[in-house]
UniProtKB/TrEMBL annotation:
Source species taxonomy: Eukaryota, Viridiplantae, Streptophyta, Embryophyta, Tracheophyta
Listed InterPro entries: AB_hydrolase_1 (IPR000073), AB_hydrolase_fold (IPR029058)
Domain called AB hydrolase-1: residue spans: 126-358
PANTHER family: ALPHA_BETA-HYDROLASES SUPERFAMILY PROTEIN (PTHR45763:SF51), HYDROLASE, ALPHA/BETA FOLD FAMILY PROTEIN, EXPRESSED-RELATED (PTHR45763)
Transmembrane segments: 31-49
Organism: Lupinus luteus (European yellow lupine)
Keywords annotated in UniProt: Membrane, Transmembrane, Transmembrane helix
SUPFAM superfamilies to which the protein is assigned, alphabetical: alpha/beta-Hydrolases (SSF53474)
Protein name as catalogued: AB hydrolase-1 domain-containing protein
C-alpha cells in the first residue's frame, strides 16, 4: 500500500552533510599566530643585532673613560697615540728603534727594554720607543684600521719625535706581522728591520695551499674557527668571542699553548700584572678582537711579493723564529724567507714563542741588526 510520499534515496555523504554540526572557529585565530611569530622574529633580530654589535669604546680622557697617564700626541686624523721611551736619551742616541708589540700587549710590554743588557744599550747608544697600537692602552681606536694606516702611524710617530730620516723597526709576534707593512709602505724610512716570531696570515697570496693548510690545521680547532670567522665574516668576531656555546679564540681568552722553553721563561713576564688592566681598558673589541680581524683579513698585498728594501746593502732585514713555537705558524716562516732571499733567516732550535726573553738573546738580535749579519 502506497504511503503518503515518495521514497527518496539519500547518499551517505549527503546525510553526513545534513547531520554534521557546524565546525567551531579555531581557538587560536590565525591573526594572533601571525602576530606572535612577528614578535618572535623582531625579538630575535633585536637580540642578534645586540649580540654581534660591540659596546662603545671607553676612550681614554673622555667622560667616563680611563685617565690619560702616558705621553701622547695627535695623529693626522685627530686620533691620540700613546708612547713610551727607553734607553739612552734620544739626542745622544746612535741607533733609534721603534718597537712594535704583539696581540694583547701595550707599550709597557716592550721586550728590548726588558731584556737588553745595559752595557749594550750604552755602548751602542740605543734609544727605543714603543707605542700603544690603536685601541690598546691609551691610544684611541681606529675604526678604519689597515696595514697601511698602521705603517703611516709609525712613520708619523717617528716624525713627531724627530727621530730623523731613518730608524729601525723591531716587531714581535703580531708586531712582526705589522713590520711587513712597514717594509711595504715606508721602506724609505727604514735603516733596518727585525721580525721576531711574526704572526702569519694563512690567506696570503703566494703561500702554497698544502703548506698553508698543514700549518692552519695544526692550530687548535677553536682557533681555526676564530680565524675563519675573522677572515670571512669579521662582523661576527665580537659575537663569536663573547658567546658561551662554543670555545672562542684561545689567544683572546689567554689560554695559550706554551712550549717547554716558554714555560721556563714565563716567570720573566711577572711585571705584566702591574699594568694588565690597562691593556684592554678601552674595550675588548677595540683591542684584541680588532687584532684578530686585522691578522686574518684579506691583505691588500702579500709579504711574498715584497722587493728588497735595501738593494745596496745599506740596511738589513732579519726574521727570527723558534722551531718549537706553538703560537704562530712555524712551518711557513722558512718558506717565506726562501721566497725573499734578502731576508736573514735565523731559526732557533728548541725555542718557543718567548725566546726574546731568554738571557742574552736580544743582545744577539740587536747586534745582528746593527752589524747587518
Amino acid at each position: 500500500m502506497a504511503t503518503g510520499g515518495a521514497n527518496k534515496t539519500i547518499s551517505a555523504a549527503s546525510a553526513l552533510a545534513h547531520t554534521k554540526k557546524p565546525s567551531k572557529e579555531s581557538s587560536f585565530p590565525s591573526g594572533i599566530l601571525r602576530a606572535a611569530l612577528a614578535v618572535l622574529l623582531i625579538s630575535f633580530v633585536a637580540w642578534a643585532y645586540k649580540a654581534i654589535r660591540p659596546p662603545p669604546p671607553k676612550i681614554c680622557g673622555a667622560p667616563g673613560g680611563p685617565p690619560v697617564t702616558a705621553p701622547r700626541f695627535k695623529l693626522r686624523d685627530g686620533r691620540n697615540l700613546a708612547y713610551q721611551e727607553y734607553g739612552v736619551p734620544k739626542d745622544a742616541a746612535q741607533h733609534k728603534i721603534i718597537s712594535i708589540v704583539g696581540l694583547n700587549s701595550c707599550r709597557l710590554d716592550e721586550v728590548l727594554s726588558k731584556t737588553l743588557s745595559p752595557d749594550v744599550v750604552e755602548d751602542l747608544g740605543i734609544y727605543i720607543v714603543s707605542f700603544d697600537r690603536p685601541g690598546y692602552g691609551e691610544s684611541d681606536p681606529n675604526p678604519n684600521l689597515t696595514v697601511k694606516s698602521l705603517a703611516l702611524d709609525i712613520e708619523e710617530l717617528a716624525d713627531k719625535l724627530e727621530l730623523g730620516s731613518k730608524f729601525y723597526i723591531v716587531g714581535y709576534s703580531l708586531g712582526g706581522m705589522i713590520t711587513w707593512g712597514c717594509l711595504k709602505y715606508i721602506p724609505h724610512r727604514l735603516a733596518g728591520a727585525v721580525l721576531l716570531a711574526p704572526a702569519v696570515n694563512y690567506w696570503w697570496r703566494g703561500l702554497p695551499a698544502n703548506l698553508s693548510n698543514e700549518a692552519f690545521y695544526q692550530q687548535k680547532i677553536q682557533d681555526q674557527w676564530a680565524y675563519r670567522i675573522a677572515h670571512y665574516t669579521p662582523w661576527l668576531t665580537y659575537w663569536w668571542n663573547t658567546q658561551k656555546w662554543f670555545p672562542s679564540s684561545s689567544i683572546i681568552s689567554q689560554n695559550y699553548m706554551f712550549s717547554h722553553q716558554d714555560l721556563q721563561l714565563i716567570s720573566k713576564l711577572a711585571d705584566k700584572e702591574s699594568y694588565r688592566a690597562q691593556i684592554r681598558q678601552q674595550g675588548e673589541y677595540e683591542s684584541v678582537h680588532s687584532d684578530v680581524n686585522f691578522a686574518c683579513h684579506k691583505w691588500e698585498f702579500s709579504p711574498l711579493e715584497l722587493e728588497n728594501p735595501f738593494p745596496n746593502n745599506e740596511g738589513s732585514v732579519h726574521l727570527w723564529q723558534g722551531d718549537e713555537d706553538l703560537m704562530v705558524a712555524t712551518k711557513l716562516q722558512p718558506y717565506i724567507a726562501k721566497k725573499l732571499p734578502w731576508i736573514h733567516y735565523h731559526e732557533l732550535q728548541g725555542a718557543g714563542h718567548m725566546f726574546p726573553h731568554a738571557d742574552g738573546m736580544t743582545d744577539i738580535i740587536i747586534k745582528s741588526l746593527l752589524h747587518g749579519k
